[in-house]
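Bug #77: duplicate submission created two jobs. Keeping one. Sequence:
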Amino acid sequence: MVFRGKPSKACERCRLRRLKCDLHPVSCGQCIRASIPCSGYRDTTQLRIRNESQLIAQKVKLIKNPPPTPPKTPSPKSPSPDSPTLSLLYKAQHAFFANYVTSRCWDFLTPYHHPIDAPPHLTLAIEAVSLAYLWHQLYSPTALVAAREKYVAAICQVNKILRSKCEVQKDTTLMTSLLLDLFEKITECEPRRTVSKGSTKSWSSHIEGALALVKLRGVEEFKEEVEFTMLARLTTHYICGCVASGEGIGDEMASVQDYLGVRRCSPSPVWKLTDLMMAFGNLRGGMGVISKEEYIQRTVELDRTFRDLVEGLPGSWGYSTIAIHEASERVFESHFDRYADPKICQARNFIRIFRLLLNVTLLNYYASLQDHASAQEAQHIINIQAREICASAPQYADCSNVSSCKSQIQHIHTPQHLLDVYTMMFPLYVAGMSEPLVKWWVVEQLRYVGEHFGIRNAELVAGVLEREGEGGGGGRNVWGVYRALGSYAFAS
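Kept job's structure:
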């Protein structure tokens, strides 16, 4: 190796410019005159080559003859990847706001994205629902434990503010009740029985509390657009809960719905559908109370009203039917329907569900009377509704090139896409009530959804449908499946 001279201790600027560095403490004179910060001086001892032979020999001896290992002392556990951390809560809130507040009907929560802008009870409720939603998406036990802790803390805070007449009448208190109701829909699978009445009011405690808050405040005090949206959430939650539990819809909720109807600028199909849902809920609640003949007559009239609603839908609620020329396991028959908006697809499918269930009732009644012509007509309507539901599924559940732009080999499912697929499961289950051919196609699609999208409930619903009897819906717990899937927690 050629000796190149003693290495310089000069600062970096002096070495690059080949200047004589005076090594003055703090900063050299050259850097001071140039008015630039000095990089400091180099330690030349770190640049010299040392004889490391003895050190290498010692390392080799340690490898060949390692010393005895001392007993390990228990060390404090490091947090697991699934432990509740700030990042977990951040991810949860980001997912909740992205998929509920920004793109769905919870936009009245937008000003409360940051905890500093919200009272403690609303912040805790938002965090509880966010973590519950993350648990549902990722099946994270840690997220569920953290969600329940936030939920209990939120209830404690709500119990405190209910003592204040001023706090009770605030929008944030009503928002908290709606969020706690949503939490129960996401995390619970079975309705709780009301001991006093012996009925199954499906998770009704919080939504009943929200209705009580509206009554205490006075429905006429809700005048702003944000307040109308909250009332719309309340009516949707309450009506869906009553439909699922078979409880009639009381006069208090009817008055809220009437107030919203007066404030509507135009007769939107959404509001017409809500009114018909109320009628369906009251019909279910009247089962066993009114005579069988009156019940059947009201069923026929309600089915006709649903039919008229569909015939009068605007063009924006339409869809395009696309024929396929090659058979596909993901497409029933030889076509599928494409919708411009998943919310339109959801709404239309719920109309089909109501019509299908109404005609299942009529089919069983006409069959008992041996009225074959009427029974055949009811079965025909059931089959049409079921096939239309099946035709709506491929747009969301089929990731092949047949009905989607995604590649079948490798692609990513966004949270919104997963929600759209999830909301197809209940309509598909109901469609499986129509006839064996549809039933087994639906079972196959649900198993595919469970495997391809990783949605565990799809396999469970497929098993339920597979075990149930065919035709007429006998022995089916339709609304039990609806509750087990989270009811309206994942629908628009």
